[in-house]
Write a structure and sequence with these properties.
This protein is of the alpha+beta class. The protein has eight helices and eleven strands. It folds into two domains: 13-106, Phosphorylase Kinase, domain 1; 111-320, Alpha-Beta Complex (Aminoglycoside 3'-phosphotransferase, Chain: A, domain 2). The protein has a five-stranded antiparallel β-sheet with strand order 1-2-3-5-4, with no helix packed on it. A three-stranded antiparallel β-sheet has the order 6-9-10.
Length: 321
């Protein structure tokens, strides 16, 4: 999400090439400037690959190593995800001029969607059924995995969502909130804290991707491939589905797409979706906190307004119900 914390970044990608014994003739193409700066590397007679220069101070080396270990495990189990390419020294993460860098395998495919734009797919229901299956498989494989020593990732638990210091910030203190909006978000926060305190122990919890939005899902031969595990960690499995569903709320066939996603998931893994509306509200709240340190960026005023409007609307619907 969003390109922040990379201001003032002076490191150029060619400075990382020697870590993989790549020559200066390697073709380097900028793909994205979001949380990380992402480049495509084209080396003669090799498949393309991806170089990531990470946003400073967002993840520790241990967290990034854990992310890459998880992705490598998923790939070894047959899931199509980017896999780490070790340096010539066998390391997964290195630091160049105070910037963490890593290299991943390249995946072909077309993004499922783009934020702020309608889905442009003919096979919509099949796509979402397959995505549901993909989610379920990810969760099942992760539950079966014996975590490596020192494995560490963030926790999208009650504290991480509505605690005193949520992972993406104190959303109820967003400076663009009106007094009434702030009151609504404080009220919903109190209610959801109570609900999670009562029910967290009964909800499915484990490793999740945590950011399966359109840009992070590639479709190839009707199958979804997952990108960008940057915000992955431990979390409620309903939060995984809610992240995808929140972004497609405006689709005219939303109800059918939600049903397709749940059907696909349940075809391989049990799921109690009774509290899914709660997690859609929770996901919307996180974005109101996420945007705060990015309010200086171009276009942030409109984005912040949309995020607040969505969160307040969902919160009010929940409180009224």
């Amino acid at each position: 999400m969003g390109f922040n914390g990379l201001r003032g970044m002076h490191m150029t990608p060619n400075k990382a090439l020697p870590l993989w014994n790549l020559t200066p003739t390697t073709k380097i193409t900028l793909l994205a400037e979001r949380e990380n700066r992402v480049y495509r590397l084209d080396v003669p007679n090799e498949h393309p690959s991806v170089l990531r220069i990470h946003r400073q101070h967002y993840r520790t080396d241990a967290e990034l190593t854990s992310e890459l270990q998880w992705m490598a495990y998923l790939a070894a189990q047959g899931m199509v995800v980017p896999t780490p390419i070790p340096t010539s020294n066998g390391t997964l993460i290195e630091t160049v001029e105070k910037h963490q860098v890593d290299r991943l395998s390249w995946l072909d495919g077309k993004p499922l969607g783009e934020s702020g734009k309608s889905l442009d797919r003919d096979d919509r229901l099949l796509t979402f059924r397959n995505l549901g299956k993909c989610m379920a498989r990810l969760h099942t494989l992760s539950d079966d995995w014996e975590l490596p020593a020192n494995f560490t990732r963030v926790h999208w638990n009650a504290e991480g969502l509505v605690g005193e210091q949520p992972l993406w910030g104190r959303f109820w203190e967003n400076p663009r909130l009106s007094a009434g909006q702030r009151n609504t978000l404080e009220t919903i926060r109190d209610q959801l804290r109570g609900l999670l305190a009562e029910q967290a122990a009964t909800l499915d919890y484990g490793l999740i991707h945590a950011d399966m939005v359109g840009e992070n899902v590639l479709i190839c031969d009707k199958q979804p491939y997952l990108l960008d595990f940057d915000d992955s960690g431990f979390g409620f499995r309903l939060f995984e589905l809610a992240t995808t569903l929140l972004k497609i709320r405006a689709e005219p066939d939303y109800a059918a797409l939600e049903t397709a996603l749940l059907t696909g998931y349940r075809s391989t893994r049990p799921l109690d979706a009774q509290q899914l509306p709660v997690f859609i509200v929770l996901r919307a709240l996180t974005y109101v906190g996420w945007i705060v340190p990015r309010l200086h960026e171009a276009g942030s005023t409109k984005r912040c307004g949309r995020m607040i409007a969505t969160a307040v609307e969902l919160a009010e619907e929940y409180l009224e119900a």
